[in-house]
Amino acid sequence: MMSYSELLRNLSIASDLVVVRQTPVVRRERRMSLISKEIEAHYQQVSEAERLLDGVGEVERLRTQAILARHLPPPPAVIFDVGGAAGVYALPLAQQGYEVHLIDPVALHLEQARARASKSWVELASIAQGDARRLDIPDDSADAVLLFGPLYHLIDRADRLQALREVRRVLKPRGVLFAAAISRFASLMDGLARGFFADPGFRGLVAADLTSGQHRNPTNHPQYFTTAYFHRPEDLAAEARDAGFDDVQVLAVEGPAWSAGQFLATWNDPAQRESLMQFLASIEREPSILGASAHLVAVAHRTD
After folding, report:
1. In this structure, is residue 209 part of a structural domain?
2. Domains in the chain: how many in total?
3. How many Cβ atoms sit within 10 Å of the Cβ of residue 263?
4. pTM score of the predicted model
5. Distance between CA 112 and CA 142 in Å, rounded?
6. How many whole angstroms separate alpha carbon 170 and alpha carbon 144?
7. Measured between alpha carbons, how far is 215 from 297 in angstroms, rounded to an integer?
8. Do 244 and 165 contact (CB within 8 A), yes or no?
9. Residue range 185-211: average pLDDT?
10. Average pLDDT score over residue span 131-149
11. Residue 176: phi, psi to the nearest 5?
C-alpha cells in the first residue's frame, strides 16, 4: 500500500492545503469555516505556542512530551499531529527523526507552524488545514496520532466519537492514540488559583461547567477560554473504548500541582522542578486525583 508521504510526493501539483518537503513556496490556506467563529477568534487573540513556554503551560508541555516519549514507537514512525496548532509538539518530534504531519483547522496556526519550522530549520512532512472529524488521510497510514485539542472543542459526544473513529481508521494495526482533554474541574481550580473566582460571571461559567461539562464564555474574556467540553476522566476513557480502542489508559498531565499556591516558586527552582516532574510521573495513573489535573491524556491502541 502506498504510504501517505509517497502519495504526497506523487502529486503533480501541491494542493492549496498541503505543504510537502519538496515544495518550498506554499500558498495561503483557504479560509475555511472548520470551527465556530468564537473559537477561531479566541485563537486569534491567544498564542497557544507562547502559553506553553513557561509556568503552568510549561509543565503541561514537558509532562505531555514525557508521556509521548514513553509510549511512542521509535523513529522514523509516522505521526499525525491533529490539532497541532503552531507545532509545539510536532517540531521536536520531527527533530527526533519522526515523519510528522501537522493538521489544524486554524489558518493562523498553520502560518505560525511554517514560520517556526523555517526559523528552526526543521522539516515537517506536511502541514494541512483540516477537520479532525473528516481526515483526508488514507486508511492504515499512521503509527501514532496526537489529538491534542480537537476533543476540547467538540461539544457533542457524537462529534468526539467521530473524531476518535477517524483516528482509529487512519492508524495502522497496533498504532497508538494520544487524546488530550480538559478536566471537568479545571475552571473551578483555575479560577481560584488566578483570582477569576471574584467575578460573579466567572462563577456562573464554573456552575455550568460542573453541571454539564459544556463551557461557554459569552463575555469573550480571553482568560476565560472559549467554547469547549470538559471531561470527567472516566468519560474520556469510555469515549476511547466506544470508538473501538483497546488498552485505554487515562493519565494526569499536571496532576494537582498546577493549582497550588506555591507552584511557580517551586517550578522555578531547578532542584524542586526535577523532583516535581518525577512525582507527577509516579502519580499520573492514580484514579483518586485524575480529575485534579487541568489536562488528561488518553493513551490507547488499535489492536486489530
Report:
1. no
2. 1
3. 18
4. 0.88
5. 24
6. 9
7. 19
8. yes
9. 95
10. 97
11. -120, 135
Q: Cell 503509527 identifies what position?
A: 143
Spatial separation of the C-alpha atoms in residues 269 and 265, rounded to whole Å: 7
CA pair distance 43, 48, nearest whole angstrom? 7
Kindly give, in sequence order, each residue whose CB lies less than 8 Å from that of residue 151, ignoring residues fewer than 6 positions away.
Answer: 160, 163, 164, 179, 180, 181, 229, 231, 236, 239
* pLDDT confidence of residue 44: 77
Classify residue 140: in a domain, yes or no.
yes
Amino acid identity at 26: V
**Spatial separation of the C-alpha atoms in residues 265 and 59, rounded to whole Å:** 13
Burial class (CB in 10 A: 0-12, 13-18, 19+), 28: exposed
CA-nearest of 58, 124, 115 to 90 is 124
Residues 285, 249 contacting (CB under 8 angstroms) = yes
**CATH code (residue 61):** 3.40.50.150
Fill in the amino acid letter for 217.
N
Per the domain annotation, does 193 fall within a domain? no
Q: Is 28 helix (H, G, I), strand (E, B) or coil?
A: coil
Peptide bond into 76 cis (omega under 30): yes
Q: Does residue 28 belong to any structural domain of this protein? A: no
Mean pLDDT for 144-155 is 96
Q: How many CB atoms are closer than 10 A to CB 218? A: 11
**Can you tell me the distance from the alpha carbon of 47 to that of 57, in angstroms, rounded to the nearest whole number?**
12
* Parent domain of 92: 4-17+33-182+231-301
